[in-house]
Structure prediction request, 212 residues.
Amino acid sequence: MTRGRFIALEGGEGAGKSTQARLLAEALRALGLEVVTTREPGGTPGAEAIRGLLLGTEGEGWHPRAEALLFAAARSDHVERLIIPALEAGKWVICDRFVDSSRAYQGGGSGLSDAEVLELHRIGSGGLLPDLTLLFEVSPEVAAGRLKVRDGDGADRIGGREAVYHARVSDAFARFAEAEPARFARIDGNGTPEQTHQLVMSALAPVIGVNP
Prediction:
């Protein structure tokens, strides 16, 4: 059986990843592909429980190293119980965030080294990387408008951090894409969902083997 493909969607807060994950899954299913959609942190019961610990706003929160360890633990369960079995069954996996979010948020945002984050990923998830990472890039103004609609005044613990933190996250994502152009496709996410989806399908055309 042919191994499935693993597509991760990355970007900062308000980048539109969840909407694009849904549109992409619908498009791939229309092509006759079997698709699994999932998210991080989460995707399995254990990882979803850790998600609650990480994103809940009660208490004082986590030290950056503890936060990175929790993300790595959630990802390990996710990879072993959902992602790898799906890929081995020939399914396409579309994941809303993966290890590059840890690199950008706990690394670029919170100051851990990229080597530390990747070492946790090697230990916990065997260093698994997506076949293609779609990086959605939007202006701060567009992101703020979307977040106002989505969250109102109720952002989660990480989404609610200060603007300078999220600027560091955005800069980190851009560095990763520049360093690994073969794995990343940079998508302008400032347009309508339909316009952005067309850019996604164009980026995926060589992987799928069809015209966008």
